Amino acid sequence: xxxxxxxxxxxxxNLQRDVEDICKSGCDLVHVDVMDGHFVPNLTIGPVVxxxxxxxxxxxxDIHLMVKNNTFFVELFAPLKPEYxxxxxxxxxxxxxxxxxxxxxxxxxxxxxxxxxxxxxxxFLLKDLDMVLLMSVNPGFGGQSFIDSVIDKAARxxxxxxxxxxxxLIEVDGGVNNKNIQSLKxxxxxxxxxxxxxxxxxxxxxxxxxxxx
Length: 213
Ligand code: DX5
Ligand code: ZN
Fold this sequence. Notes:
Elements: E1 2-5, H1 15-24, E2 30-35, H2 47-56, E3 61-66, H3 70-77, E4 84-88, H4 95-104, E5 108-113, E6 131-135, H5 150-164, E7 169-173, H6 181-186, E8 191-194, H7 196-200, H8 204-211
Parallel strand pairs: 1-8, 2-3, 3-4, 4-5, 5-6, 6-7, 7-8
Bound molecules: D-xylitol-5-phosphate (DX5) and zinc ion (ZN).
């Protein structure tokens, strides 16, 4: 299981320290939550701050867009060469076109599904994707409780991707901790995002290791 700590739970007064800290503590990716105050009722960071993060991160960036104008934000963040850019299917009329655009910029495209969105919504896009991100909380805030129904959903998605595109990874984001990690592993999840669990833990290294099962 790969682990992508979410910098949303970092101390923004000490962002460089916290980004360096999670990278040294053995994380696999750095998860960056971009919120625009429209798609979700919260506003986070733009390219100025993410550029500063990219400069000090020694692990690849995993940019999660929670925005209304996906294409605009893809163009804004593409020069930072993240590993993944993921966008919400609920907010995109032309997902196939945007997948092609992200790939043409040399970035791995991923689609995010809100907790209520069925996995079948990406069935006809799966072969073009590098990753599907399943939200296990309602997007917008860190520190919320894990929604259990994502387990069945991940199991369904796992069957679908094994058939249609085995190299497409499954990521889960929200409320992940050492109590639910095994059930995520059991249904084929490849990457977890963890914000408050990692940043509130006495040792980020121990927290990250406890999820890398
Ligand atoms: C929620 C974000 C998550 C969040 C995870 O909108 O996408 O990445 O920061 O934080 P925890 O792990 O605290 O739920
Ligand atoms: Zn996220």
